[in-house]
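Re-run with default settings, no changes from the original entry. Doing this only to confirm the output is reproducible before filing.
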Amino acid sequence: MIRPTRRAFVAGGLAMFAAPAASQHAHHGPMYERLNQPGRIEVPPIAQEQRMFDSIAPKAANQGRWIERAPLPLPRTEMAWAAERAGRLHLVGGYAEQRVDKPYHHVYDAASDRWMQAEDLPRGANHVGVAVLDGRLYALGGFLDQNRRPHAECFVYGAEGERWTPIAPMPQAAGAMACVAFGGNIHAIGGAMGDTAETRRSIERHLVYDPRENRWRNAAPLPTARDHIGIVAANGLIHAIGGRVDTFYTNSHFHHSYDPREDRWRMRNPFPTARSGHGATLYRGQIFCMGGEGSNRVYGQNEAYDIASDRWQAYAPMATPRHGMGAVTIGDAIYVAGGGPVMGGGVKSAVHEAFTLA
């Protein structure tokens, strides 16, 4: 059952975009919280030093704009991804309230600009892989410690009412995988494993879950092992964009596409800004990638890939650069919720902003 949160903002969806916010979050109070200390804070000064906005990609003629939306009920980060289901944004797991294994499941309704609380994940974790297929939300794996010690358990939400039920676990535990629904299956690509910071490493694994048989199989692995990847399915292909090789000190420009008919990966036009933990979503026929982190960097870059021309362009950067957030397309806007404003997972945010070309 989905329950409204105490905060409710009722309005008419994209009609709200006609009146831009006068100032960022001015009427919401502090939007941030430290991982190791309770209590809301203002954005840390170091966030201003780490923010990056400039892209090497050519600028699009219509830059679009960012608009403030209803903030998350509490600061969260390292959900790493979000999923859209029936016109609503779903965020599961992540860091919150001084823990890295929270089972939170928040749902945002774009039409009313309102957050609600749904049934918690059966097992709290961070960097949980999520995807929606046939109206059902899948939650796959994740880390039990801070970006390490993965588990293999998987769950589906919506198969038996508005609740979670277990499905076949992955053959091997992993977190920070890029997950996407495609061709009636769920693809879980890349990710990382390792129980300690010293043993943590990226993997090139490509698993495919068949919900009809409740079974996993292997597919062609990524050409280069990495995690925290942006992923989108479009025009008969899966696009895996950016990500890190073991650590954000070695972020990647790689952009590969996967053709299931050939079970083969191909190189595409590289990602203009190498980064990891960014959002990726299909909007107006293009793949938009926003945010992310690197070495002493938190990116606001918002770059879009035109599939037909194999070309990248730069759009209006994020108003509040973040990484490890959730990003989905609903209607004629991209919604980006939560995330970390500084490198690493030490600070969480309740910031929620939307991008539109309307």
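The radius of gyration is 18 Å. DSSP finds one helix and 37 strands in the chain.
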